Amino acid sequence: MNESIFIDCLSSCMSEKDCRSRFRVNLSRNGMSTSNSMTQKILSIVIPVMFMVLLVDVCVSNAGPYDGLTITNIKITCIDKKWHDRILEKLAVRAGDPFSQQSIQESIRALYDLNEFSQISVDAEKVDGGVHLSFCAAQVNRISKIVVTGNHVVSSEAIQEASDLEIGRSVTTNEMSDMKQKLLALYRDRGYHQAQLSLWTEDETGLHKVVLHIDIQEGVPSTIVSLGFRGMTVFTEKDLVKVSKYRSLKRFTLENLETIEDRVKRKYESKGYFHTVITDRDVKVDYDSGKVDIILTVEEGRPTIVRMEGNHHISSKKLEQLFSFSEFREQNETILDGFVERITEYYHTKGFPFVQVAYQQTTEDDNPTLTFLIDEGPKVHVDDISFEGNQSFTGEELRSVMFTGTQGLFTKGLYQENVLDDDVIAIKAFYQQYGFLSADIVAVSREFSENRDHVSLRLTIEEGVQTRIGDIRILGEDNETRFKSIEESLLFHTGEPFDINQIKKSVNLIKEMYANQGYIMADVAVMPEFREDDTQGNVILKITHGQQFFIGGITIKGLVRTQEKFITRELQVQEGDVYDREKIKDTVRRLLQLGFYDSVSFRRLDSKNYDKFQPMLLEVKETSAKDIKVGAGYSTEDDFKGFVEYSDRNILNTGGRLTARAEASIEHPKVTLQYVQPHFLTSYTSLVTTVFDDIQEDNNSYDVEKRGTSLGLRYKFHESVAISAYYFLEWDEPKDVEEDVILSDLDSDVLRIAGLSIQVTWDTRDNLLFPVQGGQVQLNARIALDALGSETDFFETGLRMSWFQRLYKQVILAASARVQAIEPVGYSTSTPIYYRYFLGGDISQTNPVRGFNKNSIGPIGVSGNAIGGDRMAVLNTELRFPIYGAIGAAVFYDTGLNWLRFEGFDDEYWRHGIGAGLRILTPIGPFRFDYGWKLDRRSGESAGEYYLTIGSAF
Q1: Transmembrane segments in this chain: where (predicted)?
Q2: Cβ contacts of residue 138 below 8 Å, gap of 6+?
Q3: Whether 195 and 291 share a structural domain
Q4: Virtual CA dihedral for 537, 538, 542, 543, nearest 10 degrees?
């Protein structure tokens, strides 16, 4: 008689809540069979998976009739062969072992612990000589791919991150339901309350894998249409609505709602209400229209009163600015002592070294009150600064290093202890710069006047011995080219003072040189050797350049609206290139200049990875490509003027830049539309096209309206060098031309001008708005020809140069020179008046010479109107220096001349002006007031002219 028993332990787990396991043992007998087989049906049980171990116990306990029988064979079924060996290794039973309930239990548990199987069944069959076991393991289905469709506002990467799902994970029905709620919450947070999602899986036959589909219908963004408040007494609802600025936020998102609440709380904090809370949000969303109405309930709380007493020289408003209102929410001893320290330090910076500050906490009308009691003491000025022990440097040289100074015409001469401490450090550094390595300020004495409002300072110095550099030796570099580069990069030389700072800078330059050649782990050890008397020190540089690194794979993150090619085309290093730190920095700089990104980071993916090829991560944070700018200005020459400019730096997501600009001026309105397409044909070439309408009514001799267009290319050879070439076409319509300035019909005729223009620019200025170093050179030439569509022919060439040099600290020498000439060619015999040159006026003019009226220099007609010249030269120079804070001054010398070719050069037209002016720095440029005197004043002329302008000079 053969008997068989079927043991099935099944786990179908879609979540912890619906996980169930079933066990069946069937015994039966069929008397009609010649094999006398018998099957016995015993039991069916369903229990939670958290009791799986108990289930297995029940499962094997019903196999009692097989206990002790020898296991003759173990078979693995229902799964790929690649799993057979691994499953056999995990089993607690082997062929030849006696059948054991415990061993079966441990085997099933071990297989479930692999987290690879959704169902495990064991079939036990009694055979001659023992028991045959068959394990059937059904593998779980795992996600092989996640497909997101219908999303436009939220990236697929952000959706996958919010869902907490990764490739290779299994997913259950309940997990998909939770995931759907997370994604809907993500869209609600982004202001899309109409969003709908569908999630489903698609089997990949025979692979135990599924494709997860996420289909999204985003709908329209929800918009805040009204905002109201309840519970307020301190402010009106109109006040809170105004401070919320909810209309500027546009979309309704959780982040924007919190922004509104924060603004309301800050408004309350400005009145001392530090415990204001929003107790209720009544939000009504119309899901059909996407409109949102919000009512916020405010619990104002009790106000905290903060007052200052005893402050006579510094206003309470100034002192209150030292604190953030939110800091008053807690008023423990530590915080209040910190407030006292801040007030004290602020008084010290204003020259009150004897100030005493205390605080007092009281209650007035049930409102907590915090009073700061201030005893200011006298304001102290420095009368004198003297030195003792200084042999190598004069007192004047040492005082020039200090920020502390005596009272003068442009300096307050305040005594500030913290500044004096910094001055002591600066003097020591000054000495060390000249090789006095052990120099020290051993004493600082302060002698106050009787009423303590003046002080005399005396600093005692021990200079020590001056050390000079002896031999310089470089060890560890055998490459002759690199060795020579290292020598050339050194900022110190034999015989010079031993300057530690210059040695440190040299070390950094050497490391940077190695880093640009892939040796990013290079180290430079400085090993000085000093004589016994410290008069000389040898410098030994020991170089360990280490392994050379190369660029590995480059991963780009953070792209939402911009295309990946915008980044890849700016890369200065590619996979396989030598790791070059300078080129990596250049890549970051170029990407920031595109205007697409708020921040750019280009770094090694893992700083602890020392593989030869370094994986790189380029991460960007995008910014809005659209801008609207508004500006205004004034000058005595042009009156009020302003502009409105709209720009899109990524129009239609092509990387092209569109700019529309309207300039308003009484005498010179202008409208310009320009399109620039970077990376046109090559990485360094831009296509530029411009359309304009320019009305010029700022010359007493004529008016003209110019309408036209240009199309050309701009090629950037280097960061500071560029060349531009354009074809230009314009229609010029002169009006109201004075009779005494007309040299030919061209001066009054409506003309079409067409030709070619080329310009080369070299710009090394360190700052475009406030340059202090560097310069700019522009060489230009243009030609108008009949063959190119022009009604008059001419050739024009010119050179303009500006340069800036720091002479001393903030004293800057600035200069600008320009020469220009225009010549009729072909059948043309003259040049239209609006292409001739006019000189005079302030820096806001094209060809300024201060001290003279606008356009007043050069040839004039019989009625006294300016004719203009076809040759010109102008030189402007300024010496700029600070006075106090944002206030500065300048002295200047301007000279210029222009003349007509057919009249020849005449020094009568060469004029000179000299003058001075005040400068006040503002975020939009310097506010300038200048007065220029004529050095060659003539009969009937004024002594000079004054100018009031907002904007940079040159």
Answers
A1: 42-64
A2: 78, 79, 117, 118, 119, 120
A3: no
A4: 100
For residue 810, is it within any domain? yes
**What's the mean pLDDT in 71-100?**
84
Burial of 636 (0-12, 13-18, 19+ CB in 10 A): middle
Q: Per-residue confidence at 57, pLDDT binned at 50, 70, 90?
A: very low
173 and 281 together in one domain: no
Write the pLDDT tens digit of every residue in 832-874.
999 999 999 988 788 899 999 999 999 999 999 999 999 999 9
Q: What is the DSSP code string of 321-373?
A: TTS-GGGGG---HHHHHHHHHHHHHHHHHTT-TT-EEEEEEEEETTEEEEEEE
Judgement on whether residues 839 and 901 belong to the same structural domain of the protein: yes
Domain extent, residue 49, equals 4-139
Same domain for 231 and 102: no
Q: Among residues 247, 265, 299, which one ends one of the domains?
A: 299
How far apart, in whole angstroms, are the C-alpha atoms of residue 175 and residue 183? 12
Tens digits of residue pLDDT in 417-442: 999 999 999 999 999 999 999 999 99
Those residues whose C-beta lies under 8 Å from the C-beta of residue 290, and which sit 6 or more positions away, are 193, 194, 219, 220, 221, 222, 223
Read off the pLDDT of residues 144-175 as tens digits, 9 standing for 90 and up: 888 889 888 888 888 888 877 777 777 777 77
Measured distance CA(330)–CA(336) in Å, rounded = 9
* 308 found inside a domain: no
- pLDDT, residue 193, reads 81
**Predicted confidence (pLDDT) per residue in 368-390, tens digit:** 888 999 999 999 999 999 999 99
Please check whether residue 548 is in contact with residue 521, taking contact to mean a CB–CB distance below 8 angstroms.
no
Question: What's 400's domain CATH number?
Answer: 3.10.20.310
- Same domain for 572 and 604, yes or no, is yes
Overall domain count for the chain? 9
pTM: 0.56
The terminus-to-terminus CA distance of the chain in angstroms comes to 112
Q: Which of 375, 491, 388 shows the shortest CA–CA distance to 441?
A: 388
Shared-domain flag, residues 781 and 821? yes
Residue 195: inside a domain: yes
% of residues, the chain, pLDDT over 90: 53
Question: Are 358 and 289 in the same domain?
Answer: no
Cα(87)–Cα(120) distance, rounded to whole angstroms? Answer: 11
Residues 607 and 610: their CA atoms lie apart, in Å, by: 8
Pair 647, 626: CB distance under 8 Å? yes
Question: Is the domain of 667 the same as that of 812?
Answer: no
CB 298 within 8 A of CB 276: yes
Q: Distance (Å, rounded) from C-alpha 537 to C-alpha 535?
A: 7
Helix (H/G/I), strand (E/B), else coil: 288: coil
In 563-655, beta strands by DSSP E = 597-604, 613-622, 626-635, 639-651
Query: CA neighbours within 13 Å on the CB side: how many for 267?
Result: 22
CATH no. for residue 845?
Answer: 2.40.160.50
Residue 260 in 3-state DSSP? Answer: helix
pLDDT for position 407: 83
For residue 502, what is the enclosing H or E element?
helix 500-515
Give me the sign of the Cα torsion angle 944, 945, 946, 947. Answer: negative
Pairing of strands 523-530, 550-557: unpaired
b/e for 931-949, b at 16 or more Cβ within 10 A?
ebbbeeeeeeeeebbebeb
pLDDT digits (tens, 9 = 90+) for 199-237: 888 887 666 788 888 899 888 888 888 999 999 999 999
Asked if residue 731 is part of any domain, the answer here is no
Q: Which residue has the tokens 């899309």?
A: 192
Which of these three, 217, 232, 247, is where a domain ends? 217
List, for residues 493-552, the tens digit of each pLDDT value.
999 999 999 999 999 999 999 999 999 999 999 999 999 999 999 999 999 999 999 999
Residue 924, pLDDT > 90, answer no
